[in-house]
Amino acid sequence: MSIIVGQVAFCLYRDHKLDGGDFMDFTFTQEEDGFREEVRSFLAAELPQDIRETHFSFLRHSWEQMFRWHKIVAPKGWVAPYWPVEYGGTGWTPVQQYIFDEEAMMAGAPRLRPFGLKMIGPVIIKYGSDEQKAYFLPRILSGEDYWCQGFSEPGAGSDLASLKTRAVREGDVYKVNGQKTWTTTGQHANWMFTLVRTDPEADKPQKGISLLLIDMTLPGVEVRPIITIDGDHHVNEVFLNDVEVPADMLVGEENKAWTYAKFLLGNERVGIANVGQNKAELRLLRALALKQQRNGAALIDDPVFAAKLADLESDFMALEISNLRMLSSIKSGGDSAELAPFLKLRGSEIQQRSNELAMEAVGPRAAVWEKDSSDDAILDRYGTHGWMLSRAFTIFGGSSEVMKNIISKQTLRL
Ligand SMILES: Cc1cc2nc3c(=O)[nH]c(=O)nc-3n(C[C@H](O)[C@H](O)[C@H](O)COP(=O)(O)OP(=O)(O)OC[C@H]3O[C@@H](n4cnc5c(N)ncnc54)[C@H](O)[C@@H]3O)c2cc1C
Questions:
Q1: Contact status, residue 282 vs residue 361, Cβ threshold 8 Å
Q2: How far is 59 from 204, CA to CA, in rounded Å?
Q3: Alpha-carbon span 343 to 328, nearest angstrom
Q4: Residue 347 alpha carbon to ligand 1 centre in Å
């Protein structure tokens, strides 16, 4: 079956007929089609031209563009599709969320940053105190606060339950000591949601962990950059030395954070599949293959390259269908837990393959490390830097090996 789909996709590619979002035969309801039109009109009116052009010129969005876009979407009330309406969410169905994400990515919008909106926001809504909800949720929506995730430590990544950062209750505060690592965009964040050990004597390591919301400006918080293999500053080490965190920044109950962390990581993994973004990347890749020349013809006419592209597209179609399956299951009362690790595994692999093929499309020029002319703009995204950065996709949010372990246990019941 997949061979047949691959062959059909190959022929469509060769004839340059495959276009954007309509190659998958999935029926949306009339209301969903109407909603898609509403989203398209909003994007046509509100998505700034420079942000759109950044994407279609094969460049990466800047930090400033990401936040400008957040602040454009926020007043429309559309930044938090996953939140209940009473807290400022949209009340969209999972299918509507997917449509918004897909349309925004295909139009060239930046991804809304997930740490506040997708990760800690839903946890505060489900487990936080009334005061935490009243204070933090509006600030996440408006973009006033920016969050980072303080889970991993030098000795605790896949085996997160072995984390050692210690929090000791002293009167009205928790005194926190320890080290977090790989903290993405910690240099920009003013808050960090942090897993800490509050009971080192618990009979299971998972039982003695709590979740604290830490103000990054508190004395004793030190952020040090880690420069990754692509030469850029995405991640950090965060040192916590006698940081006094007000006790009312504890989320839920002391020592119960393993439950909250699992809920949060489930949401993170679904997001990391990045189906909308994957689709937009594949369309860009196709545009690149039409533009690039090989042996005097468009690269897309090279049968070997076209076959690789078709193979990638057909795997993406399978991912998209799985995502839609998950959405219909949620729609009829199921949850995303079973498919989340599968989507994370396949989505991150497809993103990596897409980066790799794009680098191949650019050809020997992709090896240039420093751009020396504006003609090399394409290298920002598809040079060696981009490929190197993509190595991390199958590590963060849970490595591929760990996803396979979860699938074998949870889904295959092995
Ligand atoms: C770019 C980047 C950004 C990140 N951002 C954040 C962030 O913002 N906040 C945060 O808290 N963390 C973040 N992380 C950390 C990330 O979640 C961890 O790197 C990840 O969980 C893996 O942990 P580790 O690096 O300690 O590797 P390890 O857990 O030591 O794993 C090493 C290798 O062993 C394999 N392995 C481990 N256990 C098993 C097992 N049981 N079965 C089979 N194989 C196994 C792994 O797959 C991997 O190949 C980020 C990581 C990266 C690379």
A1: no
A2: 47
A3: 15
A4: 17
Which atom number of ligand 1 is nearest to the Cα of residue 400?
47
Predicted TM-score (pTM) of this structure: 0.90
405 C-beta closer than 6 A to ligand 1:
yes
Q: Residues 354, 312: contact at Cβ < 8 Å?
A: yes
154: number of Cβ within 10 Å:
12
pLDDT tens string 38-86: 999 999 999 999 999 999 988 889 999 999 999 999 999 999 988 999 9
Instruction: From the candidates 268, 281, 313, 320, give the one annotated as an active-site residue.
Output: 268
Runs of H (alpha helix) within 205-339:
257-272, 275-291, 303-331
Per-residue confidence band for 19, with pLDDT thresholds at 50, 70 and 90 = very low
Active site residue 268: yes
pLDDT band, residue 327 (cuts 50/70/90):
confident
Inform me whether the pLDDT recorded for 97 exceeds 70: yes
Strands 209-215 and 191-197: antiparallel
pLDDT grade, residue 10 (50/70/90)?
very low
Report CA-CA distances (Å) from 336 to 52, 80, 102, 408.
Answer: 31, 18, 19, 16
Q: Check pocket membership of 115 for ligand 1, CB cut-off 6 A.
A: no
Report all structural domains of the chain as residue ranges with CATH numbers, in order of start.
30-112 (no CATH), 147-255 (2.40.110.10), 269-410 (1.20.140.10)
**Structural contact between residues 410 and 249, judged by C-beta atoms closer than 8 angstroms:** no
